[in-house]
Design a protein that fits this description.
The complex is a heterodimer of chains A (about 650) and B (about 230). Chain A is an all-alpha fold and about 650 residues long. Helix content of chain A is about 75%, strand content about 0%. The N terminus of chain B is likely disordered. In chain B, strands 1-2 form a two-stranded parallel sheet. Helices cover about 70% and strands about 0% of the residues of chain B. Chain B is mostly helical and about 230 residues long. Classes of the chains: A mainly alpha (about 650), B mainly alpha (about 230). Chains A and B meet through helix 2, helix 3, helix 5, helix 8 and helix 10 of A and helix 6, helix 7 and helix 9 of B.
Chain lengths: ~650, ~230
């Protein structure tokens, strides 16, 4: 057998053209679809000899057969691919593409397609200059077969090119128009054209914009949403997504048309996700679509997208070894559940939380981040929070918080911030783990957003927390580290810091605990902030409620101290235009002037006199006409504290 | 039950039925396209050319490619598998390169033809070279290889339990598989649309039978309406 094959290889160098033609055709027909035969001939050094035939100014028949043989050697066999590249086969095929003979061009193109299909991630030869120009011109060849194969070659090249190469290719003139024109064809060129467009528009915004110059672009791409092959339908969705992401698309075609395109894509994408062998990037297209508009999120929820996506999560075979697919599905769920209560409850009813909890420990970083985003969305509602199994979720969440990747840590922090708000077990888990010091550490990060998220998480942690949790937090976050946050340059950090104080102050023995924690500096710091520059209303409200809570839980000395340093300021805020501020100020006064404690009615009276000397009583009387019922009720109680009888108070 | 059906089933007379059918608009261009689709998919090149001239209906495909496909199909149907392989590789080398199952079945058919011709040694050599390697990689292929090679154990393979492999229907099966692959590579449908429409007609009639009595088409080849009053 080997001898016979050697004899055929020897004939490749025959002086007679017909003999050479017969030999190469024989080799071609033996090796197509047969790895063993390819290997045999490669060992006999047939590849360089066949490539030599491509270099000749040979007749068309010989070139056609040689090109096909070279392509076959390269396909499906690494040794063959390397032998073809090493012999310069690719360059000669590219040269043959410039032939005047259509059959030679077609054969060379088919061979190139096979070569690039075998090349994996790296094309063996960059397409540029005249070669690229020639290939692009062949997209519009008069022969439909040539045009079809040229498009398939271009699509194959795009599939193994990196983003940089794609971006350069996207800048070539006439590529967009030629490919858009091919979308209208009814042959294999159509699928290849939309595949190439999907890749090129993903790498270049200007390419996506160029597609809209074609007169029938919408009709062409919408028709392709019904392509017989899932890959074609997905490529059409990718093109439409990319076009809808171009900066001025809404000005060009109107918001209504953009929404129409989105709505056309949605059911196609939801079905595609369940197709076997659909590309891993398919869920990302859905995620991008949902991120673009609340209307799409609603439409997706109306189409029961959550059920469809959670079904995928439940079937491991759909995402096993496909981290990008899983990541995309989780992100889509995160978006759908973020602002839609029905979607959250649907998700919980489908018992999918376990899948997400397991994804928190996934080997892939993006999958973990996506799972985290999912938890953040689900935990955004109190109703949903109650159904979340904390015992299952807290350990992996805390592990994520301790990971070094900053984005992932931040994502975990935001999710934990929701989880700890209303659940004692979650609070205990954080307080008793390394999660608490990690949160405190993040409070000191230079990044404003992370600092704010960390402070928010601590504020939620302390809200309604047990004394043990409060003690743990105060031990982890010393006053000296906390105080500067009350004057942080970032308004969000400030707001959350004051929220933290307010929540801390709401605890049963808060006044004493906070006094110890702050070495007696808390009240003066709050009052100083109130007096310095008129703080924003929401911060003012936090400060006043802090004082109110300290007054409520503190000792008589504490109340005297508050009345003494803050009395004038508090009275001034009775005039504030914001009803929340006026209400909060009233609460401070109520807690400072409440004489129900029989042990110290005199001290309460003394504080009342202090307020009266500031003209507070007159102001309170004026406030009996306040617009807010809540304010009027508080005023009435306050006036009672001041010792005014019911006859002194106006009817309201 | 028959009495109940007679009471609940509606009857539509032939006249009424014909009036309803007359109200349905069917365009000649659509019918022409269906006919052309049938001729082109089934490979009737000459008929397609004449029909194109007479009706001005575009074939939608390269008629030369149809000729190639028909020659290839004929080669398989006549048992000249080598010729078929060479022609299909000339037409489009990607077909057998990328479709392993088809490639295996072509080589399997070649083996069957060698056995049919009594060329036992060549058959064994062929099996070893072309069928054993894929058989090693895929258990399904191995099973088919074993079945085919078993033919060699019988003096008269056509009388053996595996006689089906020797029958012309096996050639037809291989020819159809190859034909479908060529059509697919040319982005054409694997079957003409006309059979699908006829299947739809039969299905619709079966559904309608449960609901009413009406003029049926019982013979698709001679589609006259039967009169429901006479049945």
């Amino acid at each position: 057998m080997v001898a016979k094959q050697q004899e055929v290889v020897d004939r490749l160098r025959s002086p007679d053209c017909f003999t050479r033609l017969k030999a190469v055709r024989e080799i071609k027909n033996q090796i197509i679809g047969n790895k063993n035969r390819k290997l045999s001939y490669i060992k006999l050094e047939a590849v360089p000899r066949v490539v030599e035939l491509l270099q000749e100014n040979a007749d068309a028949f010989l070139l056609v057969q040689s090109a096909a043989t070279v392509g076959s050697f390269a396909y499906g066999l690494e040794d063959g691919f390397r032998a073809v590249v090493a012999s310069g086969g690719v360059q000669h095929l590219l040269h043959a593409v410039s032939s005047q003979d259509d059959t030679v061009v077609e054969a060379a193109l088919r061979a190139l397609k096979l070569v690039w299909q075998s090349s994996g991630a790296t094309p063996p030869h960059q397409l540029d200059g005249l070669n690229l120009e020639r290939l692009i011109s062949l997209l519009s060849a008069s022969s439909t077969r040539t045009s079809e194969v040229a498009t398939q070659v271009l699509a194959q090249y795009c599939q193994c090119a990196n983003m940089e190469v794609l971006a350069r290719l996207a800048q070539e003139p006439n590529v967009a128009s030629a490919l858009m024109q091919l979308l209208l064809s009814q042959n294999g060129g159509q699928e290849a054209a939309v595949t190439a467009l999907a890749l090129l528009t993903s790498s270049s915004v200007s390419m996506a914009a160029q597609c809209t110059v074609h007169p029938h672009w919408q009709h062409s791409l919408l028709s392709l949403l019904k392509h017989s092959k899932p890959a074609g339908r997905l490529a059409a969705c990718v093109c439409l997504r990319n076009i809808c992401l171009t900066p001025d698309i809404q000005d060009k075609i109107g918001a209504t048309t953009v929404e129409t395109l989105h709505r056309a894509m949605l059911p196609v994408l939801l079905k595609l996700l369940h197709m076997p062998n659909v590309l891993d990037t398919a869920p990302q297209v859905l995620t991008d679509l949902l991120q673009q508009s609340p209307a799409m999120q609603k439409a997706a929820n109306d189409s029961d997208a959550v059920s469809s996506l959670t079904t995928l999560l439940h079937h491991e075979q759909t995402w096993h070894n496909r981290p990008r697919f899983k990541d995309g599905v989780l992100r889509a769920l995160a978006i759908l559940c973020k602002n839609h209560g029905d979607a959250r409850m649907n998700f919980m009813e489908r018992a999918s939380i376990g899948q997400v909890a397991r994804a928190l420990d996934d080997a892939d970083l993006q999958v973990r981040a996506a799972a985290c985003a999912c938890i953040q969305s689900l935990s955004g509602s109190m109703k949903c929070l109650r159904h979340i199994p904390m015992a299952e979720l807290m350990p992996p969440m805390l592990r994520l918080l301790l990971q070094t990747e900053p984005e992932l840590q931040h994502s975990a922090l935001k999710a934990l911030s929701n989880l700890v708000l209303d659940t004692a077990s979650a609070k205990d888990s954080v307080a008793q783990s390394a999660g608490l010091p990690a949160m405190v550490q993040m409070v000191g990060t230079p990044d404003d957003e992370r600092r704010c998220s960390a402070m928010w998480a601590l504020a939620n942690l302390i809200h309604g927390a047990s004394p043990a949790v409060c003690d743990a937090v105060m031990a982890a976050l010393p006053w000296s580290q906390f105080l500067p946050l009350l004057q942080d340059d970032n308004s969000c950090v400030q707001d959350k810091s004051f929220m933290f104080m307010r929540n801390l102050a709401a605890g049963r023995s808060a006044a004493e605990c906070v006094k110890q924690w702050s070495h007696g500096s808390a009240v003066p710091a709050l009052v100083a902030r109130m007096q310095k520059v008129q703080p924003p209303q929401h911060i003012l409200v936090h400060i006043l409620y802090c004082l109110s809570n300290f007054a409520s839980t503190g000792s008589e000395e504490d109340r005297d101290a508050i009345a003494s340093v803050a009395g004038e300021c508090i009275k001034a805020h009775l005039h504030h235009e914001g009803v929340e501020v006026r209400t909060a100020a009233l609460w401070v006064i109520l807690n400072l002037t409440d004489g129900a404690d029989d042990d110290a009615p005199d001290r309460a009276m003394k504080r009342i006199q202090q307020f009266q000397s500031l003209g507070t009583e007159e102001r309170l009387r004026d406030m009996l006409q306040d617009m807010s019922l809540d304010v009027r009720e508080r005023v009435s109680t306050a006036l009672n504290n001041f010792g005014c009888t019911s006859s002194d108070t106006s009817e309201f | 039950m028959a009495r109940t059906e007679a009471w609940t089933k509606k009857t539509v007379s032939k006249d009424d039925w014909e009036k309803k059918l007359a109200a349905v608009k069917i365009y000649k261009e659509d019918m022409n396209k269906l006919v052309m689709n049938f001729l082109v998919t089934e490979g009737y090149v000459d008929a397609a050319e004449v029909f194109h001239k007479e009706s001005n209906t575009k074939p939608g495909v390269d008629l030369a490619a149809i000729t190639d496909r028909m020659e290839i199909r004929k080669a398989v149907q006549s048992g000249d598998i080598q010729q078929a392989i060479e022609r299909v590789n000339d037409l489009n080398p990607e077909i057998l390169e990328q479709q392993h199952e088809l490639s295996f079945h072509m080589q399997q058919q070649r083996l069957i033809e060698l056995i049919r011709q009594g060329r036992t040694e060549e058959a064994l050599e062929h099996a070893q070279e072309y069928l054993a390697p894929p058989g090693e990689e895929d258990p399904a292929f191995l099973e088919e290889l074993e079945r085919t090679v078993t033919l060699l154990a019988f003096e008269d393979a056509s009388q053996s339990p595996l006689a089906g492999l020797m029958d012309v229907t096996q050639r037809q099966k291989t020819a159809s598989e190859l034909n479908a692959a060529i059509l697919s590579s040319q982005c054409q449908e694997k079957e003409p649309r006309l059979p699908t429409l006829l299947k739809l007609l039969v299905w619709a009639q079966n559904q309608l039978d449960t609901r009413c009595t009406y003029p049926r088409i019982n013979d698709l080849a001679a589609p006259t309406l039967t009169d429901p009053m006479q049945t």
